[in-house]
Amino acid sequence: MDFDIEYDEADDELEPDDEPTADERRARSFPRFGPGRRVGRKFADTWWGNAWIESMERTALDPEQLRKGRRYAFAGQVGPITVSPGRISAGVHDGDQYTPHDTVVRVGTLAAAEWDRLLDRVAAKAGHIAALLDRDMPHDLVQTADDAGVRLLPGYGDLDPECDCPSWDHPCRHAAALAYQAAWLLDRDPFVLLLMRGRGEAELMADLRRRNARRSVATDAADEAAGTPAEQAYAAPPAALPAPPGPVTGEPLALAPLLAGHEAPGIDAEALGVLAADAAHRARHLLAATRAEPLAPEPDAWCDAVRLAARMPRSASAGRLGEASGRAADLPRAVKAWDYAGAAGVDVVDAVFSPPRELVARSTEALREAGGVDGAAPEVKNWRNRWTVGRDAQVRYGRDGRWYPFRRRAGQWWPAGPPGPDPADALLDLPQS
Description:
single chain; alpha+beta; six-stranded antiparallel β-sheet; about 45% helix
């Protein structure tokens, strides 16, 4: 069943005390879905709509509530849906009840720093903007978000259902029905997901236009400063270059002792010493780079913060890096990943993508045959590039083609060892709890 998207308009006659909040002004309302709407083999039509459903179903405590929620969604028992930053709401009734239940699904919003990183990447690729305007969300747009350290599609724990019904289930059948129908909204318009995550379409596109304008000005300025034409540069005799430095070995000089006794208010001498030594170390790598040993790609802001935090001698300095990156809570796990595998290890903590089907089938069978980390036959569950074995072990496939072991600690997955070339070996190498 096709439907038209309706927008809430601000009421020009609102009294001053009734002024809507910023989130209320950005809210969008959608008409209810009538009964009998059916889809193909999957519930939603698009991969991102089904990714939304996977996120909701993975946190569910009772599969029976999910089955009832799907029936309610198909039967049209969900009223008009309102979407605003961090919130989806609708009235959901039980069929034999006149008054619907007030049902809400709360969605984690992105921090300002995460939006800045994401929009900088999106603005740099015209294809991403064109895809959004065409109501499409290609895989590489989500990949771009992952590269910026931003989880665009909700993950484990990002959805929080609420309902005024007496059920204690998480989610109850009413919240499940609302979440299932929200997938149908996402099918038609990925801007709905961006609104849930905290930004409305109008302000988001205005921000992207401003970023594009700044890029154009910067490009024009660079062109004006280009200087010597290419013909003259190639015609000039080559300048004599100094011999390259020797190979880089060992750790850089710690400069903190040299700064002792010269502290200034607000300056952490120890952290400054690490930064200065790190800059010298990287400069030497730049000078020593050869065609045989090309430089690694320049890390993004998040990966660079993790790298520096891993080198910081004091937790206070590392904590400031976490706050500046906007991901302080994620920093300890990322530092652990860096210790095991560097930038590739940091990437695999957040990266979610779909490997080839042949690799999925082959790896699932190999993990089952491995016998589990405790000698028992394991239950192996696969989701995208992640294989969960039993309750507390997980193996992830990285974009570099290696396999990374993880352990569950306090409800979170933590890197548990260096990567390997084989999923079963990575599982068997996991340290015992």
